[in-house]
Amino acid sequence: MAAPLLIPILGDQLTPDIASLRGADPENSILLMMEVADETTYVRHHKAKIAFILSAMRHHAERMRRIGWTVDYVRLDDPANSGSFTGEVARAIEGHRPSAINVTEAGEWRVRAMLEEWDGRFGLPVTIHEDDRFLCSHAEFDTWAAARKQLRMEFFYRDMRRKTGLLMTEAGEPEGGRWNYDTENRKPPPQRDLLMPQPIPFEPDGISREVLAMVAERFADHIGSLDNFHFAVTHEDALRQQDRFLDEALPRFGDYQDAMLTDEPFLWHSVLSPYINAGLLDPLALAQEVEQRYRAGTVPLNAAEGFIRQLIGWREYVRGVYWHEGPDYGRRNALGATRDLPGFYWTRETDMHCMAQAIGQTIDHAYAHHIQRLMITGNFALLAGIDPHQVHVWYLEVYADAYEWVEMPNTLGMALFADGGLLGSKPYAAGGAYINRMSDYCGKCRYDQKRRVGPDACPFNALYWDFLARNERKLARNPRLSMPYRNWDRMSEEDRTAIRAQAARFLKDLG
Ligand code: FAD
Ligand code: DLZ
Ligand code: SF4
After folding, report:
1. Between the N and C ends of the chain, which has fewer C-beta atoms within 10 Å?
2. What is the pTM of this model?
3. For all residues of the chain together, what is the average pLDDT?
């Protein structure tokens, strides 16, 4: 046999026709899959996130062998494991004497730098393929961004609708006459009931049980529980969960997209992001299924459009921003926030019921839905002035779907405004009234959502006004904040002083 082609497959590249495999000869290629300490510990990932990725990798290796590929699989507990992608590629070169390396680009600047360095290091031709599981290529996003003074998701999204033809009429107009049905996607939560859809609880098979035991032992000091490990770890099971979502939750996804309910972590969300991001599900095929359901009349337009917007709009847009802005994006701190992340982000031990719920289910399931990430834990960090880098690391650690390309712009840009308004036109800052409107949390909280000062006052209220006052110089000219600033100015001097003193006391106690 001629010298084979070496094709490293990273943990979020679990797609059988990933770009680096196309055109390769299964008879003369070695797929290299590597469980490495560098990746499991470069941040202290949630135990369930590690277990999900490693189990999905092991299942993917089996799948690829079944369809005729040769896979060299390096396990984390292999005594010869060097602990890094580069070290394992070096070992594989020793073992297989390949003629060249083919790899699909990584999802982080950190890993991208590693792959780019292989060429010179190993003296072999290295081809890095663009990851075409995304709709928008780097060049396309850069061209789109170069033509604009301001990047706005809504306009990018319209281009993606035109490009894919999703929810477009034959005349090239948006289905229903409008591009966006967001205003119909903000219903407060309904009563909790037994008929709410739930994701399928997949029972861990032998491979997953082995991984779970290893993770429990090796990563005992990482955040999170393994007790609720019910993730799909194969393409087939991920598809089953996709069908469950399409059948049972999608029709009401639109209505309750922003709603939150005590002890209901999933509501009408798909819980598909870990599978989409790891490569077990194809986002475009999923969006086409959603459109199909709309055209068949089983799903209303506000649900189909709302879901498709997240997938081909937000998901592609944040990725574009991540790569377009460069590796220093993660160090931005436009509001100069420096406070340390409070300890209760790791323990859930706080009297703020909304925070205890969002953090608690994160610890239990490595999952929280978008509004919890944005308007509860993200909003709190924004208002309290927590150092964006620490917040970014927390989000990257705790969610099973977290990779830098998607997590970082959502955290730094959308939740914390640390990029100064590049990704969103205003900070998503809100006091207790918003949380009360969109959830049943406040009724179960020891704080009083209506109060701004005093021992029982909801901390979000004083923090909200304090945030605006603290950042007046940077934010007051933002037209989308003119109303709250007018309201702040209308308050009496006495009220303003009391609110700021309340916030200062709370923040001092946080330390
Ligand atoms: P659904 O509500 O069912 O939405 C459908 C799909 O749309 C998701 O599976 C996801 O693929 C996509 N999507 C929705 N919103 C976004 C968005 N803002 N950006 C990108 N894709 C989106 N998403 C991640 O995939 N990984 C992350 O690490 C991540 N970190 C986040 C951090 C913060 C601070 C915030 C505010 C959001 C973050 N998101 C992240 C976006 C979003 O919260 C999750 O994609 C979503 O909660 C996943 O749950 P779901 O699959 O049930 O989503
Ligand atoms: C997140 C993660 C973890 C926890 N472990 C591994 C691993 O052992 N091997 C692997 O190939 N990938 C892992 N990953 C995902 C990688 O970190 C991911 O591919 C990069 O972040 C994308 O550049
Ligand atoms: Fe959260 Fe305030 Fe409501 Fe309590 S009262 S749940 S702290 S918003």
Report:
1. N
2. 0.97
3. 96
